[in-house]
Amino acid sequence: xxxxxxxxxxxxxxxxxxxxxxxxxxxxxxxxxxxxxxxxxxxxxxxxxxxxxxxxxxxxxxxxxxxxxxxxxxxxxxxxxxxxxxxxxxxxxxxxxxxxxxxxxxxxxxxxxxxxxxxxxxxxxxxxxxxxxxxxxxxxxxxxxxxxxxxxxxxxxxxx
Amino acid sequence: xxxxxxxxxxxxxxxxxxxxxxxxxxxxxxxxxxxxxxxxxxxxxxxxxxxxxxxxxxxxxxxxxxxxxxxxxxxxxxxxxxxxxxxxxxxxxxxxxxxxxxxxxxxxxxxxxxxxxxxxxxxxxxxxxxxxxxxxxxxxxxxxxxxxxxxxxxxxxxxxxxxxxxxxxxxxxxxxxxxxxxxxxxxxxxxxxxxxxxxxxxxxxxxxxxxxxxxxxxxxxxxxxxxxxxxxxxxxxxxxxxxxxxxxxxxxxxxxxxxxxxxxxxxxxxxxxxxxxxxxxxxxxxxxxxxxxxxxxxxxxxxxxxxxxxxxxxxxxxxxxxxxxxxxxxxxxxxxxxxxxxxxxxxxxxxxxxxxxxxxxxxxxxxxxxxxxxxxxxxxxx
Lengths: 160, 382
What we know:
The complex is a heterodimer. Chain A is an alpha+beta fold. Chain A has helices at 5-21, 45-51, 74-82, and strands at 31-36, 39-44, 54-60, 65-73, 88-93, 98-102, 109-115, 118-119, 129-132, 153-158.
């Protein structure tokens, strides 16, 4: 009697390979999810890092230090993927923080991917975070002035 | 230098008063629109995630990772979960303020780094490792939390004290501005009343200067002013002379003569039905001015005047041709204006004298034709 075990092993191997090669929609720090009009768009963090074309140095109030920042203009990213800038966006972060904020049709907001030349990891409040490249005359010593900066972004939903 | 006119002075006080009240409104608006939102912004974060200290949130993640690592067995899945919690804790711990102000921060972050390496390498974790890598940072974070709470309390106390002082200053400022506003308003009111009184007095003086004190009707100046005020309008002028008034005075005395004048003034006014403005031109002569474009209408008024006095039958003790007081009346129509008035007055006067020459107790209306180019009048006997 011919053993069927090799076929079973082959089938199991093929199934496992297929499952692993299927795009994973589950949350992962390697991607962020945009949801707009019931449609989800998964953006690879590596792709965002490659696309990052805005660089500047500013005083980060949370680090209390000058840092070199690289990232993307957030408005341009929204326009490229959503076709426009929603009035309000709901953000979900890896630390379970969530907030709905408006006023994104503004070049001032930068989606940061790199800090001091290194890609942001979770411990640098990444993989991506939103900052204002110019925060005007707000006192950087009072961190409450920067409550709108969203860290560790996992998911962004447009609010209808 | 000439002093500012009265009205400008009291408007100046009014302006100052309004400015004070406007300033008061601006102060109240500033207080409600800017100061209270600032207070709200300061305290409104209490109770939500951003209102918590980063140290508190970081400590909670460290405690969660400790919980995960204290349960046997510490398999790969648990290590992964603990690593994730550690990374979150690290991100909230690695803050410039904590690094710069709390000496325990850097060693704590280094301890977390060591634990991360061990978790990734898969090597076994001893209780001593956890005590060193997690309890030390948790103690540090607790110390930071306590100190930050103390600082927050002192900042809050200072803020409350500042706000109280600010409120006091605003209150005093508001009271001062309000009192100033009232004072300016009072000054304005005082000047306004003073200006009003002065105007009223001037008008009274002007009225007195234009009226006859004995009969209360207007005088010659008032007649001229009225004619100038009615420039261009067709008007009728009636001159009324009391026949033998001198003899009346001589016989009965001046007090009775004055009484007669007052009585005749009322009688003329009543006879003309209140339509005419009445003036006393001299001792025994009255003038009546009325809107009139027609000699016929004027003649009717003259006839009523002479007839009315006859009907009144006022006794005259020394009249050469009658036993009652009689009028001689001359009238003329004219277009109101200085030049034509002179002509109209002359025409009425000539008509009056023709009545006197004709034996008095009668009336005549002069027919006046205005010569357009120079305002002179040609007179014809009516």
